[in-house]
Amino acid sequence: MSETGLSRRRLLSGGLALGAAALAGCTESEDGGAGETAEEALRLTLSRDDGPLRESFVVDLATSDPEWSEAAFAATLDGEAYTTQYRKPFFSTPDDPTYTEHEGIYYRLGSVVVGEETVARPVLRLFEVADGETPASAAVAADRLPDVDSRAVRIAHLGARARGNTGGAPWGLVQRGGYVYRREFSAGDVPEDPGGQSELLADDGPDYVTYRERTYEADISRETFHEPVYRATVEPVADSPERMEEILRAQFVGARFDREGLSADAREVVEAARADGYRETYPYSEGYREVLRTLNRRAFVDGDIESDAGVLADERRMVRYDGVYYDLRLRFVPAAES
Questions:
Q1: In a shared domain, residues 277 and 325
Q2: What are the pLDDT digits (tens) for 132-148?
Q3: How many domains does the chain have?
Q4: Pick from 310, 276, 304, 273: which is nearest to 288 by CA?
Q5: Which domain holds residue 186?
Q6: 99 near 109, Cβ under 8 Å?
Q7: Strand partners of residue 227
């Protein structure tokens, strides 16, 4: 089964993505407001999200991934306990919930922890081999391995590449410095071989693999994991499309405004942000200040950016302008950036 999340559009993160470099360039203005160096500008973009919010958040479980989501929903709806180990049913979280519709009723999907299992899992770590140290005939190309192993090599190589590299790795995929062989299963149904038809996990499996023209030694160990057991939850929340839209709007949409409520200068800023983005260096114009306050981003004009605006960095919000939804993004860019 696939180890990816549900196949549905995710809202773009709204708010500010403040990097260390951006914060380092911020200074406090003489009037107590937030400023920045002359080399940086605050860029605003408003990306249109056509259609109702239901198209983004309400999924069809029959076509979603992982395939056991539909079984989890059906069993829970019938009053049966459906449990999974390690992975949350529906991949739904409080901050990123999943909804579905069945026979005219909309449901919020989730899970609760009901136990813990201690299991042994194979972990693949790759270590790069210097040229000439290993005969080419001893290494197997990753694309010639079974799918489960090809995926394992692709992810484990990210961990190998990250060693000593300040660029890091996607640690949600890379675990314990490599790849952990897992598969989705109901609690209590622990497979003897989580790798399925794996060649790398076999006793006589290859010791070396090649990936992206590099040779790696494949180190495999069985390690202990303490994994949560989740029970799927299904909660009815709406009995009409309009009610579902209202729920989603209340949860994800921040500022709501229209052209008539803005000054002429502020309208020009919004129109530019909707097109290719709008930016200014500090001190901001009155029109830009008006827009930032309308978007409830007062920290950029009424406070200290370094101390106040950081709280917006991970906020997942949209705005509604003239009845249309937009994804909001604010970030600092070089003033000379085109």
A1: yes
A2: 776 667 899 999 999 99
A3: 2
A4: 273
A5: 117-231
A6: yes
A7: 117
